[in-house]
């Protein structure tokens, strides 16, 4: 294919020379003037035109191949003739028709001159330079066909018995170096042109075809500018002969390659299998419990990398086993300490109850109420291990917590509830409101304000429940407020270790990332914490049910 493309490019170079010469002719001022005033041309004008065109071609090597250069006006009347040979007058009208069929584009086709010479003619329209869409004449340059078949590609070796020729899109032979394919006639194998066009459309440039009862490889190169194909047909007998001649050499090369590859296979497989066997043996030792195993370092390849990682893994497993043993010892020690320090819940509640009635008998109402509230809070944390409780139970925990807080701070704040109807029985996570209320008291309580308020609201939004805790306290910068969601709160002076960040994480872990807390705060206005979770009006989650069943 490269040879065909090189020949095609060489033909194009010659064709461009011819086109360049025709450009000089059709743009010549005198030629333009005479063609636009064709009816007024006198003898002197014709002689001037001859002189101008002859000057253009004088000294050109192309004249050796040019058989004819003729200029016709738009009425198909001869205006100029170079005089070496002539096109047959009957060919002029068909050539003009072909130009018109190609919408004014240049055409390259086969003609026979008056003297019977096979030529390839370049036929072009001449347009007025003042109005490009106006055709004022035609130029026909006939080049001897031998320029192509003898000077360009006669000596191109495509193989024994191979033909090389040029055809147009209609299948007419423009040039040929073989007498078996005469110039100026259509291909005898009519189906060949159809196969060439089909393969060119599909992007294929070679195919096998039957030519005169013999199979041949057909290859072609298409010149879209000139509209012709350069085609070669190579007999299959030649191709097979070439294949048979290299077969012994190919067989020897294959045998040598096989032996070399076999040797390399043994060498490479040995270098791979040996370290793999050793690595497998080390793995079996580890599986049997021998953690003192180490594998040999096999370099920096993949096996060496695996060996190194295996040794690291064994060391980490050994460290982990030792660490686990230490953790188990510590765990047993802590369990022993817990057993030694464990208090019976019933003993604790009975004691609190006795203290409560002692306070009642001594008319210490606040102390009695505080002990009752503390007992209920402890009952909900120690005895009631359910993960999910009703909203009413959660609010009851808040009330008990507030009773205890009033013993400490007095009645410095009020708590207000705005619960939407039908939500008191909805299920929520236990102890999600107490840390938020506690945060409002610790960070939001303004001792100089006699009207401190905490408002707890709950409403249903689609398949969600939104609960808000809002205070009118001191407030805080939003940067500080957002930190409450990112860090674990300190446990000092709190009822439990459960902080706001813990509540947020519990909700997200239990229900998903789309649920959780949002905080809004403004200095001097107060803080608002909103939490969302799925609405559940009838029962708890699997955690709740399993806790209840235990």
TrEMBL record:
<protein>
    <recommendedName>
        <fullName>histidine kinase</fullName>
        <ecNumber>2.7.13.3</ecNumber>
    </recommendedName>
</protein>
<dbReference type="InterPro" id="IPR010559">
    <property type="entry name" value="Sig_transdc_His_kin_internal"/>
</dbReference>
<dbReference type="InterPro" id="IPR050640">
    <property type="entry name" value="Bact_2-comp_sensor_kinase"/>
</dbReference>
<keyword id="KW-0597">Phosphoprotein</keyword>
<keyword id="KW-0067">ATP-binding</keyword>
<dbReference type="InterPro" id="IPR004358">
    <property type="entry name" value="Sig_transdc_His_kin-like_C"/>
</dbReference>
<dbReference type="InterPro" id="IPR003594">
    <property type="entry name" value="HATPase_dom"/>
</dbReference>
<dbReference type="Pfam" id="PF00672">
    <property type="entry name" value="HAMP"/>
</dbReference>
<keyword id="KW-0902">Two-component regulatory system</keyword>
<dbReference type="InterPro" id="IPR036890">
    <property type="entry name" value="HATPase_C_sf"/>
</dbReference>
<dbReference type="Pfam" id="PF06580">
    <property type="entry name" value="His_kinase"/>
</dbReference>
<feature type="transmembrane region" description="Helical">
    <location>
        <begin position="246"/>
        <end position="268"/>
    </location>
</feature>
<feature type="domain" description="Histidine kinase">
    <location>
        <begin position="425"/>
        <end position="537"/>
    </location>
</feature>
<dbReference type="InterPro" id="IPR003660">
    <property type="entry name" value="HAMP_dom"/>
</dbReference>
<keyword id="KW-0472">Membrane</keyword>
<feature type="domain" description="HAMP">
    <location>
        <begin position="270"/>
        <end position="322"/>
    </location>
</feature>
<keyword id="KW-0418">Kinase</keyword>
<keyword id="KW-1133">Transmembrane helix</keyword>
<dbReference type="GO" id="GO:0005886">
    <property type="term" value="C:plasma membrane"/>
</dbReference>
<dbReference type="GO" id="GO:0005524">
    <property type="term" value="F:ATP binding"/>
</dbReference>
<keyword id="KW-0808">Transferase</keyword>
<keyword id="KW-0812">Transmembrane</keyword>
<dbReference type="Pfam" id="PF02518">
    <property type="entry name" value="HATPase_c"/>
</dbReference>
<dbReference type="GO" id="GO:0000155">
    <property type="term" value="F:phosphorelay sensor kinase activity"/>
</dbReference>
<keyword id="KW-1003">Cell membrane</keyword>
<keyword id="KW-0547">Nucleotide-binding</keyword>
<dbReference type="InterPro" id="IPR005467">
    <property type="entry name" value="His_kinase_dom"/>
</dbReference>
């Amino acid at each position: 294919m490269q040879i065909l493309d090189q020949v095609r490019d060489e033909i194009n170079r010659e064709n461009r020379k011819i086109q360049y010469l025709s450009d000089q002719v059709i743009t010549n001022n005198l030629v333009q003037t005479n063609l636009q005033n064709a009816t007024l041309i006198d003898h002197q004008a014709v002689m001037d035109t001859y002189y101008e065109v002859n000057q253009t071609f004088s000294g050109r090597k192309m004249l050796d191949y040019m058989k004819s250069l003729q200029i016709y006006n738009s009425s198909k009347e001869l205006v100029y003739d170079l005089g070496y040979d002539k096109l047959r007058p009957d060919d002029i009208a068909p050539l003009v028709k072909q130009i018109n069929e190609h919408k004014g584009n240049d055409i390259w086709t086969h003609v026979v001159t008056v003297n019977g010479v096979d030529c390839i003619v370049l036929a072009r329209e001449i347009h007025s330079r003042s109005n490009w869409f106006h055709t004022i004449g035609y130029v026909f340059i006939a080049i001897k066909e031998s320029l192509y078949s003898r000077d360009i590609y006669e000596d191109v070796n495509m193989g024994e018995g191979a033909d090389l020729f040029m055809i147009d899109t209609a299948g007419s032979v423009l040039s040929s170096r073989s007498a078996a394919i005469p110039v100026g006639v259509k291909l005898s194998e009519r189906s060949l042109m159809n196969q060439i066009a089909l393969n060119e459309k599909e992007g294929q440039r070679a195919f096998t075809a039957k030519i005169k009862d013999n199979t041949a490889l057909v290859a072609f190169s298409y010149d879209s500018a000139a509209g012709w194909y350069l085609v070669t047909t190579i007999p299959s007998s030649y191709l097979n002969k070439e294949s048979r001649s290299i077969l012994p050499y190919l067989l020897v090369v294959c045998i040598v390659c096989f032996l070399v590859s076999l040797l390399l296979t043994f060498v490479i497989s040995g270098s791979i299998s040996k370290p793999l066997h050793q690595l497998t043996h080390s793995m079996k030792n580890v599986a049997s419990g021998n953690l003192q195993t180490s594998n040999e370092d096999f370099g920096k390849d993949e096996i060496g990398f695996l060996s190194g990682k295996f040794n690291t893994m064994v060391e980490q497993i050994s460290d982990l086993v030792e660490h686990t043993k230490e953790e188990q010892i510590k765990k047993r020690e802590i369990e022993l300490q817990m057993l030694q320090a464990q208090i019976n819940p019933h003993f604790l509640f009975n004691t609190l109850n006795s203290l409560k009635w002692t306070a009642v008998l001594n008319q210490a109402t606040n102390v009695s109420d505080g002990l009752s509230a503390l007992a209920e809070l402890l009952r909900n944390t120690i005895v009631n291990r359910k993960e999910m409780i009703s909203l009413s139970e959660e609010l009851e925990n808040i009330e008990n917590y507030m009773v205890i807080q009033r013993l400490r701070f007095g009645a410095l704040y009020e708590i207000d509830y705005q619960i939407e109807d039908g939500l008191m029985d909805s299920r929520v996570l236990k102890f999600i409101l107490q840390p938020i209320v506690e945060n409002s008291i610790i960070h939001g309580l303004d001792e100089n304000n006699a009207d401190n308020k905490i408002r707890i609201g709950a409403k249903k939004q689609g398949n969600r429940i939104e609960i808000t805790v809002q205070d009118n306290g001191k407030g805080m910068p939003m940067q500080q407020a957002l930190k409450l969601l990112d860090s674990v709160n300190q446990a000092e002076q709190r009822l439990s270790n459960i902080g706001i960040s813990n509540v947020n994480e519990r909700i997200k872990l239990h229900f998903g990332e789309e649920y959780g807390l949002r905080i809004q705060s403004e200095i001097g206005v107060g803080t608002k914490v909103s939490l969302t979770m799925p609405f559940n009006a009838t029962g708890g989650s699997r955690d709740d049910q399993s806790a209840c069943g235990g």
